[in-house]
Amino acid sequence: MATYEVEHNITHPTPSSTHRPRRPDLSTFFSTLELVDTSNTENVHAVPIPGDISAAFRMLADAFERMRQDAGDGADNGDLLENLVETLLGEADAPPKEVKGVSDEFLADLERVPRKALKKDMSCPICNNPFLDDEYPLVVRLPCHKSHIFDLECIQPWLKLHPTCPLDRKNLIKKKEVTPPPPKEEEEDGEYDDMYA
User: pTM for the full model?
Assistant: First the structure.
């Protein structure tokens, strides 16, 4: 009995041995992140468990370390990934009381870079893969600097844990300034309005 592929004359392209995966699977990280991310909850008193926060930082550090090892010693992003891994592991050892990352709305509002604007030599600073290697690249620009562009799949995990750019560590969330209420207009005593109280 022949297989489905043989019967319907379907050929599978042979994977290239030189092509490496774009990035590790982060599904476990995102499921752990759901336990510690309190930005989308209605309960203002919700506090994540420190062990879960530590686990989220360690999982992302492991993923970045795998990216660094897969890229090899001559990769352009080795120093950046090493720095990110050290930061994440340090925070995993002494986890904060809450995750101070950006909201989902912030991620949705990031400026998207169209495929036409990408050049062949442009690559993600985190995964070091050229943007145009992806059939449908989803590239975003961070508001801190016009040249800070990343694959959304690479930058999203970092931004969910940190509200800073991984390249220059500038805070991406603008603090809301408290503006005093406008002064009340004083009523003039001389004006007659037919209303008595």
Answer: 0.69
